[in-house]
Amino acid sequence: MKIVVIGGTGLIGSKLVRRLRADGHDPLAASPEVGVDIITGKGLAEALQGARVVVDVSNAPDWGDAAVMDFFQTSARNILAAEAAAGVGHHVALSVVGTDLLQGSGYFRAKLAQEEAVKAAAVPWTILRATQFFEFIGRIANSSTKDGTVPLPPIFFQPEAADDVAATLAGIAEGAPVNGTVELAGPERFRLDELVRRYLSETGDPRQVVTDARAPYSGLVVDDERALVPGGSYRAGAIRFADWLSQTAAKPAAPSQPQPDGASA
To answer: Most exposed: 13, 147, 228, 263, by fewest CB within 10 Å?
Structure first.
């Protein structure tokens, strides 16, 4: 079946497109590079023609409070309207575990607004809330570095590999909509400060992690130490951190596109 992946050229989107194609589907990676603009709506109707499923893994280019809210509200409105007109039968959206608990952050307020738009629309839907990706750990260290050290809170953290996110999204896209939210987390639970300390040590980075319960995460002091991990039942990724790290260290570094901690892309 034809499955349109909004944001299909990003980290998760490109992996998802490859997996769907391997499964025998006809995925379309929709992005500005191929003439699909989810903010202006240009190219959306043409891209969605004949599609049975749309998977939205897009992310905002500007993380300012007003800009990110406008991005997720506008894009959701345009995508969902185009889906309804095209007769799409399943809208799948990628969001973040803990979104509703981190509303002091403009980014997470915008993600919650996106979720609410999906729930209110006429198109059957499934939201996948994933924890952070292993691929973002280095970026978390970089954004938290202050005067050569990395202050981080000892909150619980249960990230998974981007490959596991793509695999879970593929399974959801190939199935029936649940009109509900599914959560995904990694197979192991850590403390954030301990995991980043381990990552830096094993990648030869000399920066020292300083444990600080009041240090911000994604610009926000997180008072609930379990805010970033699932609170109930969830799907678990298969790839363990040590295995991902050994595979990643063996590969040449790919150019990275900066994203906010916990962003879905």
So the answer is: 147
Q: Give me the amino acid identity at 99.
A: T
Cα–Cα distances in Å, from 179 out to 97, 118, 175, 189, 247? 17, 10, 12, 28, 36
Q: Is the pLDDT of residue 77 over 80?
A: yes
Rounded to whole angstroms, how far apart are CA atoms 20 and 67?
32
Q: What is the dihedral of CA 224, 190, 193, 205, to 10 degrees?
A: -150
Q: Write out the two tokens for 160.
A: 């998974």
pTM: 0.92
Place of tokens 């990230």: 159
Do residues 52 and 123 lie in contact, with contact meaning Cβ atoms separated by under 8 Å?
no
| E-only strand ranges, 41-146 | 53-56, 90-96, 125-130
**Residue 250 to residue 2: CA distance in whole angstroms:** 35
Contact 78, 112 (CB under 8 A): no
pLDDT of residue 63: 76
CB of 111 within 8 A of CB of 129?
no
The answer to whether 63 and 71 have CB atoms below 8 angstroms apart is: no
* Tokens, residue 256: 């990275």
98: left (phi over 0), alpha (psi -120 to 50) or beta: left
Write out pLDDT tens, residues 30-50: 999 899 999 999 999 999 999
